Amino acid sequence: MTSRALLELEREVVACRRCPRLVAWREEVARVKRASFASEEYWGRPLPGFGDPDARVLLLGLAPAAHGGNRTGRIFTGDRSGDWLFASLYRTGFANQPTSVARDDGLRLTGAYVAAAVRCAPPANRPLPEERDNCLPYLVRELSLLESVRVIVALGSFGWDAGLRALRALGEPTPRPRPKFGHGAEAEIGRFTLLACFHPSQQNTFTGKLTEPMIDEVLGRAKTLAS
To answer: Is the pTM of this model over 0.85?
Structure first.
């Protein structure tokens, strides 16, 4: 039942056209393309979450990359952030392989599900508040359908904020004072634990702000909390 409901939600997400600015941008990127991907057919639509329907850990990013998920049709797939994330998921036992390059590359997740706070690639990777709010119901519904999820790993402060908003929408009590984002921060919110990790963006990984041991430690902690 859960898998069928997730598929129905996936179809709804992919067909979404709620945000005119995002629709125009994602489709323009898919039409113009980057030179290195000129021969590829871009996805150019919103991205649903993906992973194990029985996952106990949900990883929450910001939005698809214009030439990553917006090209490949799977979140964190085909970009440098995804290279870091899936390598760590592999090292920590959540993924069957360390790479994610295409929707049909054989990647399988066990115990984990990956989603984004905003489902379309935004200009300059910066969604507007109303675009964030338009997408929130999709995350809320995913969390309600993924009944086994107990840990949400927020990848970056945007994901942290979206996680807090989604849990409040689900009726979970928001702690006071409001939990602040910081790498490794944890917040117990009802039956969930919200766990923070610096986003695996190039600006964090190239500068050493986020290292492989750091992301592995967070995902290892998520696995422990979820067990």
So the answer is: yes
